[in-house]
């Protein structure tokens, strides 16, 4: 039995066809395969970090107060993880979060169409 037999999403998750980091690192912009464009600020992504250091793996509680994330936090680098996620490097040095596409789509907000 493969993984796919256990995980059957009702709809296929959206996949980004383009990921653009703002030149000042203030956020990311995604273009999704359904044509939607969304943006997420570096601060929101840092607050959303799903890594084991940021979310207790048993209680699912966030281990820090999101309000303590600096307003001026930046994303200094982004690497993709396989074809399902990406890992941003934040200006506070944090780079252990693996953000799945679903997480990014949920954390970002639709951008006005150009
Ligand atoms: Zn984290």
How would you characterize this protein structure?
The chain has a single domain (17-109), classed as NE0471 N-terminal domain-like (2-Layer Sandwich). It has a four-stranded antiparallel sheet. It has a three-stranded antiparallel sheet with strand order 4-5-6. With 114 residues, the chain is α+β, with helices and mostly antiparallel strands. A hairpin with a 5-residue loop joins strand 1 and strand 2. The radius of gyration is 15 Å and the shape is globular. Helices cover 16% and strands 30% of the residues. It binds zinc ion.
Give the distance, in angstroms, between the N- and C-terminal Cα atoms.
Answer: 45 Å
Mean pLDDT: 91
Please state the second-level CATH architecture.
2-Layer Sandwich
- Which ions, cofactors or small ligands are bound in this entry? zinc ion
Strand content: 25-35%
Low-confidence stretches: none
The number of distinct β-strands equals 7
Give the domain tally.
1
Q: Provide the gyration radius in Å.
A: 15 Å
Spatial strand arrangement across the major sheet = 1-2-3-7
Q: Helical content, roughly? A: 10-25%
CATH classification class = Alpha Beta
Largest sheet: 4 strands, antiparallel
Class by alpha and beta content: alpha+beta
């Amino acid at each position: 039995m493969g993984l796919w037999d256990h995980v059957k999403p009702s709809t296929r998750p959206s996949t980004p066809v383009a990921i653009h980091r703002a030149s000042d690192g203030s956020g990311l912009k995604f273009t999704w395969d359904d044509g939607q464009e969304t943006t997420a600020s570096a601060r929101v992504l840092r607050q959303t970090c799903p890594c084991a250091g940021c979310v207790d793996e048993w209680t699912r509680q966030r281990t820090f107060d999101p309000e303590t994330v600096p307003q001026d936090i930046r994303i200094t680098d982004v690497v993709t993880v396989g074809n399902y996620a990406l890992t941003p490097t934040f200006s506070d040095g944090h780079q252990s979060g693996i953000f799945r596409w679903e997480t990014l789509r949920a954390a970002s907000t639709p951008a006005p169409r150009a």
